[in-house]
UniProtKB/TrEMBL annotation:
Necessary cofactors: Zn(2+)
Cofactor binding, per record: Binds 1 zinc ion per subunit.
Binding locations of Zn(2+): 96, 98, 116, 118
Name of this chain's protein: Glutamate--tRNA ligase
Gene that encodes the chain: gltX
Molecular function, one GO term: glutamate-tRNA ligase activity
Domain of life: Bacteria
Species of provenance: Candidatus Woesebacteria bacterium GW2011_GWB1_39_10
Glutamyl/glutaminyl-tRNA synthetase class Ib catalytic domain span: 1-293
Purpose of the protein: Catalyzes the attachment of glutamate to tRNA(Glu) in a two-step reaction: glutamate is first activated by ATP to form Glu-AMP and then transferred to the acceptor end of tRNA(Glu).
Keyword ATP-binding set for record: yes
Residue numbers covered by motif 'KMSKS' region: 224-228
Gene Ontology terms: cellular component: cytosol
């Protein structure tokens, strides 16, 4: 039975790298009709944020990820304590009173052997007694490579703190065993912890699961993708107007590739196609253009009504417009937007008259504006066909260049050179507002 887990710590907004781990772990289990477990690693109470657990659950829900079992490590403290004490009894761990001075905090630079290891203390924190000269190795199922450490480079890690809380190392090993996890998938930054875990598996007599470390997602500017370099939080990206479907599709293809060149996957298609041979060994780069492309694909697939309500959630001004105007605008810009937040930029001129920069106009703009005003004023049937017909007639009668004339109109009405089709926009704005804007552009 394949059983995987996603084991986030509720320490703040989820990063897309974590989300990717969840997607892969889910697909790995579900492809084999196995179980996916959500385990909250909340043993570091100092770093926990309020509402963090609900936020994780909520985010997974947004992407349609359901878990078969749910655990909170903070509810399992007695289990870890029992295991830690057994290790002391077996001689593989020792009590220590200088918990704060951990070799890890010294950045591995000083001696990795703890000063308390041979003092025979009877209480305090519990630390792992790392063997002196041993080879510790395993084969990573993502990297498809054997990784070897020599025990002198592994530090005497704290397993149980003196307050009774386990550290990550102890809790993760005990839980992965007790929860019968067959495949452990985690980010690359956890790799240095693995030799500690391998020793624990051995000392506890646990079977070692398959362990795989995922590649890092890189920043296009170099280095690892990080918060400092822009939005990498899942909430942030959703807030920017990326659809969950697009984000999902983008994220799963950042580190995994199908056998064919297929690009569009929803969750169930991904589960069906999943194969751990598809994990790529080289670090993917966070390619925002690609994300925009995916988002565009999914926006085009949405119904106008659904897209309209996404636009509403991005823009209070848009929401205030007349219902049928909203829908007309949605249809008008559906093919052009990359993100749902683009509504604020693409449609702003519908609720706010522009400040027109005269420098944008071509030479003949005053003539254009005059003719446009007269033509629009004379239109009796306010519909696309008539507007088109009448404006084109005026262009012809006055010997204007069509493109040039409509550019003047576009700039006068919207303040910009690139906008949705201008005649359709004019219909939505209405005859009166169109005339007002033409007049304003004239006298600006
Ligand atoms: N709690 C760790 C995290 O936040 C889990 C690492 C693991 O999956 O072993 O990523």
């Amino acid at each position: 039975m394949v059983r995987t887990r996603f084991a986030p710590s509720p320490t703040g907004s989820m990063h897309i790298g974590n989300l990717r781990t969840a997607f892969y772990a889910y697909a790995l289990a579900k492809h084999e009709k196995g179980d996916f477990i959500l385990r909250i690693e909340d043993t570091d109470k100092k770093r926990e944020v309020l509402g963090g657990v609900d936020d994780i659950k909520d985010l997974l829900g947004i992407f349609g990820i359901e878990w078969d079992e749910f655990y909170l490590q903070s509810e399992r403290l007695s289990v870890y304590k029992k295991f830690a004490e057994k290790l002391v009894a077996d001689g593989h761990a020792f009590y220590c009173r200088c918990e704060a001075k951990n070799a890890k905090e010294d950045g591995f630079s000083t001696s990795l052997r703890d000063v308390c290891r041979d003092k025979g203390l009877k209480s305090g924190a519990i630390k792992l007694r790392v063997p002196d000269n041993e080879e510790i190795k395993f084969t990573d199922f993502v990297l498809r490579d054997e990784i070897i450490w020599h025990s002198p480079v592994v530090f005497d890690a704290t397993l149980l703190k003196s307050d009774g809380f386990p550290t990550y190392h102890l809790a993760v090993v005990v839980d992965d065993h007790e929860m019968k996890i067959s495949h452990v998938l985690r980010g690359h930054d956890w790799l240095p912890s693995t030799p500690i875990h391998l020793l624990l598996y051995k000392y506890f007599g646990f079977e070692i699961p398959e362990i795989g470390h995922l590649t890092d997602i890189l920043d296009p500017e170099g280095g690892k993708l990080s918060k400092r370099k822009g939005s990498t939080s899942v909430r942030g990206l959703l807030g920017e107007g990326y659809l969950p479907e697009a984000l999902f599709n983008f994220v799963i293809l950042s580190g995994w590739a199908p056998k064919d060149n297929r690009e569009l996957f929803n969750l169930s298609e991904f589960v069906k196609a999943f194969d751990s041979d598809g994990f790529q060994k080289s670090n993917p780069v966070f390619n925002r253009e690609k994300l925009d492309w995916f988002n565009g694909q999914y926006i085009r697939q949405m119904s106008d009504e659904d897209l309209n309500s996404k636009f509403q959630s991005q823009s209070p001004q848009f929401t205030k417009l007349d219902q049928s105007d909203q829908l007309s605008i949605t249809k008008l810009i559906k093919d052009r937007v990359k993100k749902t937040s683009d509504i604020n930029e693409f449609a702003k001129f519908f609720w706010e008259a522009p400040v027109v920069d005269k420098n944008l106009f071509s030479e003949k703009y005053t003539e254009h504006l005059e003719v446009a005003q007269d033509t629009i004023l004379a239109i009796e049937q306010w519909n696309n066909e008539t507007i088109n017909e009448q404006l084109l007639k005026s262009v012809k009668d006055n010997g204007f260049k069509t493109g040039d004339f409509f550019m003047t109109l576009r700039i006068a009405i919207t303040g910009q050179k690139f906008t949705p089709p201008i005649n359709d926009s004019i219909i939505i704005l209405g005859q009166e507002e169109t005339l007002t804007r033409l007049q304003k552009a004239f006298s600006s």
